[in-house]
Amino acid sequence: MTSxxxxxxxxxxxxxxxxxxxxxxxISNRILLLAALAQGTTxxxxxxxxxxxxxxxxxxxxxxxxxxxxxxxxxxxTGCCGQFANNDxxxxxxxAGTAFRPLTAALALSDGHYTxxxxxxxxxxxxxxxxxxxxxLGANIDYTGNEGYPPLEIFPATLTGVGKVAVRxxxxxxxxxxxxxxxxxxxSTVTVEVIGELISKPYIEITLAMMGRFGVIVQREGWCSxxxxxxxxxxxxxxxxxxxDASSASYFLAAGAIGGGPLRIEGVGSDSIQGDxxxxxxxxxxxxxxxxxxxxxxxxxxxxxxxxxxDMDCNHIPDAAMTLAVVAxxxxxxxxxxxIASWRVKETDRIAAMATELRKxxxxxxxxxxxxxxxxxxxxxxxxxxxxxxxxxxxPVSRILNPGSGIDTYDDHRMAMCFSLAAFGAQGMRINDPTxxxxxxxxxxxxxxxxxxxxxxxxxxxxxxxxxxxVAQRVADTLGYHYLDSGALYRLLALAAQRSGVLLxxxxxxxxxxAKIEICFxxxxxxxxxxxxxxELRTEEAGAAASKIxxxxxxxxxxxxxQHAFRRAPGLVADGRDMASVVFPDSVLQVFLTASAxxxxxxxxxxxxxxxxxxxxxxxxxxxEARDSRDTQRSVAPLQQATGAILxxxxxxxIGQAVDFVLAQYQLKxxxx
Length: 673
Description:
This protein is α/β, with parallel strands linked by helices.
């Protein structure tokens, strides 16, 4: 279920298939800016289309750079050699660090007046170390808000000719990237010395590689100092291709490791210049089986089906390491991710956010200034064959809990994408504010859905006394699936209301009661708040009460999560009146089972008589017709055949024939591993 506010990912059984990655955000924004600073026209292909790259493209156009889009992901940028046509501009850069920091440096060393601002979170991300280094070179920069943080106002620089500047390396590698990319705009040799340990070194490697493609070779002494010599100038290489995003690859590699595989990711591989491809090494340490070529990787779960915990220094993969934090839920033991202090100054405080949300799903988490420690859950014996993949499925983690109000994402795209993996637990996952993935991967959830296989559902809807409950129960027993009698939920709520003195017309009180009651089904036995209930649920009075409260929107919403909770491996057969249309719209098979009103009245009469209960067939017929009218005319989730559902009229069929029909249809539609 999807809305602008959340997306519900059903519980997942497996993952396999092939995906092609979108372009790398880091490479896309570097190439776009370098093309603008270069001499000549650069044709850039496979650019990532996302919020961050849109911010860079908008900024370049605002500065007067010629940017022509010639295909969905292709742009032709005519460089200006650092002399922007518009030397007085206001740039709005959202939360795009890969745009904000490099543009700050490039504009600070120019002869113009600019203001740079972003979203509130961008104004909480430090930039003081970069500003101080630029000021040492002669930049004239003011903070218009808090000292050391955006927004900024930049005035024409008065270059000092200083040949050496220093910048801290332990806050953000983007400070060093920004300086290095801007230094060829000067006419002097400048050396940048790094203070402290440089984090995210692979991102500096990307910067150096991209600068080299544009003709500027940076001299270096390890990770301590970097020199751009006088006379360095950017020249267009003509055509550039953007690699697939290795950080985004991490979610699919993890999905394959948890969900069986084989899952193939095309767009990055052994020839990648991105450090996050080393995420694959971390998964190998956890037991995953990974093979790769120059531009692809393929992953399968461990032969045992069990991932193991790791203790890792993640300095080299700071973004992809977030994915490991969720993978740790599925690993045996305690996983420790170290040297991740940079998480604190990203789109959100990622250490605090990750710890908070992992605890929501029942994990034991310890956090520190630069580490996070996650204790995963014990995984049952897996069904994986020695070959893995086809025909295998990973038993879900039994203790992962439904987080109720959902996983909060803090306007952080990586939080949303990481926690999609938690849907491999027993109850699926609700992700709040899913549109935040537009920052780097707008189509993420659609792509993720294409390569993951949810716990299958057979939805059988129909009017009262149509036999759907008996058919659904027998289908579930035959397949070894779980069974949901949704009508029983409404009967149980009506019974709980009666016991609690809640009026069946009090919608708000009923909704609150629905959220609190505890319901348990075991075969034909049913418990309500720890007490076994019997034939009272099958009386005509109970059915009428259920039909009445089922018309109340708040009640239906309150019971929705309880219905979703029945969706467990290996599968579910659910019967009701809106299973296909509302509760499980992604069900593999949808059947609308019906019969004539007279046939249904006859069946109900025999059913009640067999239980030793009094019945009047004329009264039953009248009640069924009245309930049909009420159910089909209600404003919320009316009884109707869902689009795509198979109509099965059982007036002339017995139960066995109806069951055989449903099983035959399911064999045609059931998911194939």
